[in-house]
Amino acid sequence: MSSAPFTHRVLPYDGMDDYLAGAVPFLRAGVEAGDRVLAVTPLASRMLLRDALGTDTAAEIGFTDSAGWFAHPSRTLSDCLCEADAPAWNGRRLRLLAEPAWAARRPLEVLEWQRVEALVNIAFTGTGAAILCAYARTLPPGVIAASRRTHPEIVKGGAALANPLYTDPWAYSTQCDSAPLPAPPPGAETLPLDLPDLYWLRQYVADFARRTPLPHDDLQRLLVAVTEIVTNATRHGRPPIVLTMWADPEDRSLVCQVADGGRWPPGADLGLIPPRPGGPGRFGLWAVRLLCSGVQIRTGDRGTTVRLRLRLPDPADGAAPAATATTVNTA
Question: Residue 204 sits in which domain range?
Answer without folding.
Answer: 189-317
